[in-house]
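@channel sequence for tomorrow's demo:
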Amino acid sequence: MIPYKAKILTKDVAEELNVSKTLVDDLIEFYYKDVRENLSELNHPRINIEGLGQFVIRAKGVNSAIPKYEKALNTHDTSTFTAYYNKKIIEDRLELLRKMQSMLELEEQKKKEFKNKKYEKYFKTNLAEQKGDN
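structure tokens (generated this afternoon):
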């Protein structure tokens, strides 16, 4: 797969659809702005981007980031308004990370329950078949 440069892509799409190049640029910029916001705001553990695939937040990354933010909060200076504002940003980010951690734990729990139910049915049918063979 050969990646396209944005300029070439927008020009080709604009010609193909018979619309202005600025309209195509604006649409692409709007779409990827939304994608960047979804990735950075930690709203969902999985984000599917058509043509690129799924982006999945790793639990290991979230679990290692939380202690770093907690340490930064404990050592952060709030003597000025700017420093207080920065501390507030760190607190908000830490809250998002903790929320994401609980979402990931819930997703992992659902996976385990699904596997248990699946294998439970499998083992029950196999045991019934084995008893029937005897």
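heads up for whoever presents: Strands lie at 46-49, 53-56.
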